[in-house]
Amino acid sequence: MSALILNNIAQHIRLTPEEEAHFVSLLSAKTIRRKQFLLRETDVCRHSAFVTHGCLRGYTVDANGFEHILQFAPPGWWIADMYSLLSQQPGNLNIDALEDTDVLLLAKSDQEQLYHDIPKFERFFRIITENSLVASRRRLLDNMSLSAQQRYESFCRHYPTLIHHLAQKQIAAYIGVTPEFLSKMKSEWLRKPKG
Fold this sequence. Notes:
Layout: H1 2-10, H2 17-25, E1 28-32, E2 37-39, E3 47-53, E4 56-61, E5 67-73, E6 78-79, H3 82-87, E7 94-97, E8 101-107, H4 108-117, H5 120-145, H6 148-158, H7 168-175, H8 179-191
Helix pairs in contact: 6-7, 7-8
């Protein structure tokens, strides 16, 4: 289980075996059952979660009860309510499991201690935070400027392992259309001559 997270970290920083062991000692494993919450809006986010198996989603619910999915987290992805984690204020993101999901949790306090114990972790988490900011900005611009078809194609590029794995309702909520519209759009796209 720790091999996946250590491989994720190795993409950005090099750790000694002792540093790896120290980092792994700070993680706690948790299983989140399908439809169970890791975090509810108005909770304070106290952990970053790294998915090792399954899939989580981060979403908000508007005043009309519509879900707006901001992120999926399949294996190898980090997820947290970044605003709440960094500010330690109540958040506005729900994070739940789309299927039984195993995660490794890193407490914010342990993350802060890592910066002192192994300073190169500041670089790692800076990169993770920057990537999150870039992804969030890309989503915002996509939602303002791309057609539904283009947003669907963007989803397929960013989550290739989830295209056939997720319910159409989840994909529709991510790209901002109804499941019926997504179905119609996909069938029209499949009928188009390729070439």
